[in-house]
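User: Can you help me understand a structure? I only have the sequence.
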Amino acid sequence: MIRKKWGVLLVVHGSPDNRGNLHALEAYARLKERMSEKIPLGIGFIEHATPSVDDSLDLLAGEVDAVALVPLLLFDAGHSKSDMSSYIKRAQRLHPGLEIIRDWALGTDQQVVSLLLQLLPPVDPAIRETLVIVGRGSLDANANASLFYQGRRLWERRKGNQPLFSFVSVTEPRLADLLEDLDPDRQDRLVLLPYFLFEGVLMDRIRNMGDVYREKKGFSGELRVTPPFGDHPTFLDHIADRIDRLLLTGKTPMPKWPVVHADGTVEHLTLTERES
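Assistant: Let's start by predicting it. Here is the structure, written out as tokens:
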């Protein structure tokens, strides 16, 4: 029996700020060092940068018999639920016989919570701390809810005060509004934890909001903004493990997303049911 030659393609969102794209490429290079040289590893950007996902898929198709698509995305929203299937259908049409399997977004991966614990300072009972978890924001309600889910798991392991939650775009509560209402005299340390993989415009916006809060509110305590974690060694080790698992098993269980109807009933749909 002839074994198929596999390739792996990282699918990254891409940013209008090239710093974010360079940051993603740095993470890709470090991940490549963790992977077997026998398995080609490529990268494709959904938008804003090159190479595109389609171009990278075409390139890999000329080298391998099968491709594992690995989205480096935080939550299963539009790009993970819809775009990925579009890439697969196009590639299979243009490259008959090419086998393609896929992973899903990180979602509520417990290892991300473990990583966040490394980024945060330890809880100190002598320090009044306010921790604000900051997401990008999505039109997908389940993606937004997943941020709260991860934040609760983080608190269960870290303890301290309950974290606050906010977003910088698309949905509420907005970080700017949260900071406007935050009393500077009620904390000694303000920690903003962006739930982001790479640098870019939104990371700048979060840091700037922290600076504005300090100046406008006269906050004299410690202000800390944790970095994006897409190139963190622990994160890259985990992605390498996820890739190994995907190649070993040949599939990843399809997530189910709850849909709440107008009458209050809840239905759990798979991707196939959702698109039918």
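Now, to help you interpret it: Residues 141-158 form the longest helix (18 residues). The CA atoms of residues 42 and 82 lie 21 Å apart. Let me know which part you'd like to focus on.
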